């Protein structure tokens, strides 16, 4: 029992946190696509390929330096690298944590990006827990606060990752609405202890994690959100938080709480946030369908969205098309292939971003070359997902239901 928790409130033992992808029982929800009828997921790309399951011994793991490099490749920022190295040295199978609010259709930043990062974490020997934050979505008024609709969206999102090729053998999906009831005394004691350690102003500064501003008129329930997310990190016995840069403030809150209570500090791996398709959109958002590519968009839709995307000639910074190449296409395929006429320079395969950036800045690579090549690559990645939702009746019914929902920002 942790000294930071009130004495006498914990049972002698609690069930281990974690469960399968099956959602909590919630009445007559739309059917979930059966794993026996789903097409076999494609092999993950070589840069993200993971073993058949978490390694059972250190003998089957890559070297410490290789594992460290693999995990660091998922992040724009690591806090702290020295701690990560030590954690990997002490524990061959650390627990990595990510979570998501089910709040509508999935865009490529969440779909492809998370699949790449999860497969890398599994390849590095990590046990990955993905929290399906249905309670959090309800607190944040997503899907009108309808928990049943939120859970249906959660099932749909799991189907997307399954079809895409996420290595689910190394992943455990857990539902926040169910985990809490496995050991409620422990969970709510953590929430209360964190709240006693932090001021209202510190919690308000975490509002960014909900997609809210400090100036927004927050409900009392939304003040609970950061406290509960911080508690999840300790409740799920997390070693590494692998989340977006937009979640950095609450992850730092967890480290502050660790310092105040003597708990083990979670290591933070914050991944890059991909921009929307339009100029000045710092984050891809499903609330603006024209600014995002969704995982089941058909080929025509993808082509049209990329064609209209902001892609200024000779400018790298703030160019969403080049960011999608850097963070999605090159990691997935290991290269980026441009097909063009000999008069325009001929076909070219870029093995990385350095040469591509030089060509783009010089004008040797034009947006008219980049856009069709990018659309072709994204369409190739998305095709197994389309096939799954087109050919599996249960998956199709699930998607049709999700498309009828109207999420909230």
Summarize the structure.
With 409 residues, the chain is an alpha/beta fold. The protein is 45% helix and 9% strand.
Q: Average pLDDT across residues?
A: 82
Q: How many strand units?
A: 8
What is the beta-strand fraction? 5-15%
How does the major sheet shape up? Answer: 6 strands, mixed
Distance between the termini: 39 Å
Strand order of the largest sheet: 1-6-5-2-3-4
Uncertain regions spanning at least 5 consecutive residues: 1-20, 26-59
Query: Radius of gyration in whole Å, from Cα?
Result: 22 Å
Write down the secondary-structure element order: HEHEHEHHEHHHHEHEHHEEHHH
Number of helical stretches of at least 4 residues? 15
**What would you call the structural class?**
alpha/beta
Proportion of helical residues: 40-55%
Assembly type: single chain
- Shape verdict: globular
Question: Overview of this structure, please?
Answer:
The protein has about 400 residues and is an alpha/beta fold. The chain is built from 15 helices and 8 strands. The protein has helices at about 65-70, 80-90, 110-125, 135-140, 145-165, 175-180, 185-195, 200-205, 220-235, 250-260, 300-310, 320-335, 355-360, 365-390, 395-405; strands spanning about 75-80, 95-100, 125-130, 170-175, 240-245, 265-270, 335-340, 350. Strands 1-6-5-2-3-4 form a 6-stranded mixed beta sheet, with helices on both faces. Helix 3 (about 110-125) links the parallel strand 2 and strand 3. Helix 7 packs across helix 9 (about 220-235). The longest helix is centred in the C-terminal third of the chain and has 25 residues, at about 365-390. The two termini are about 40 Å apart. Residues about 1-20 and about 25-60 have low confidence and may be disordered.
């Amino acid at each position: 029992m942790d000294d930071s928790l009130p004495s006498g409130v914990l049972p002698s033992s609690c069930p281990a946190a974690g469960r399968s992808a099956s959602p909590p029982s919630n009445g007559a929800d739309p059917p979930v696509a059966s794993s026996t009828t789903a097409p076999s997921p494609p092999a993950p790309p070589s840069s993200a390929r993971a073993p058949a399951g978490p390694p059972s011994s250190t003998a089957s793991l890559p070297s410490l330096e290789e594992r460290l490099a693999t995990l660091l490749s998922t992040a724009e920022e690591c806090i702290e690298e020295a701690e990560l190295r030590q954690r990997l040295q002490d524990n061959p199978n650390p627990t990595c944590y990510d979570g998501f609010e089910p709040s509508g259709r999935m865009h490529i930043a969440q779909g492809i990006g998370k699949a790449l990062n999860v497969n890398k974490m599994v390849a590095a020997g990590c046990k990955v827990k993905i929290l399906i934050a249905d309670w959090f979505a309800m607190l944040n008024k997503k899907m009108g606060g309808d928990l049943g609709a939120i859970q249906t969206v959660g099932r749909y999102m799991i189907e997307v990752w399954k079809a895409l090729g996420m290595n689910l053998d190394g992943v455990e999906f857990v539902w926040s609405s169910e985990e809490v009831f496995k050991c409620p005394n422990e969970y709510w004691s953590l929430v209360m202890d964190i709240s006693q350690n932090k001021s209202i102003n510190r919690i308000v500064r975490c509002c960014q994690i909900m997609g809210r501003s400090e100036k927004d008129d927050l409900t009392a329930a939304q003040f609970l959100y950061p406290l509960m997310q911080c508690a999840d990190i300790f409740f799920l016995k997390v070693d590494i938080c692998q989340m977006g840069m937009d979640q950095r403030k609450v992850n730092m809150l967890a480290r502050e709480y660790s310092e105040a209570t003597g708990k083990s500090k979670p290591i933070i791996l914050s991944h890059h946030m991909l921009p929307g398709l339009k100029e000045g959109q710092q984050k891809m958002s499903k609330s603006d369908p024209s600014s995002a590519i969704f995982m089941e968009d058909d080929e025509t839709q993808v082509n049209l969205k990329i064609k209209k995307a902001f892609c200024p000639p000779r400018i790298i910074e703030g160019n969403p098309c080049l960011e999608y190449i850097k963070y999605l296409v090159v990691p997935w395929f290991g290269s980026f292939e441009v097909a063009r006429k000999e008069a325009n320079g001929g076909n070219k395969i870029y093995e990385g971003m350095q040469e591509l950036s030089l060509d783009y800045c010089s004008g040797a690579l034009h947006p008219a070359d980049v856009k069709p090549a990018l659309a072709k690559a994204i369409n190739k990645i998305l095709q197994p997902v389309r096939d799954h939702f087109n050919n599996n009746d249960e998956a199709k019914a699930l998607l049709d239901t999700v498309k009828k929902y109207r999420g909230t920002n």
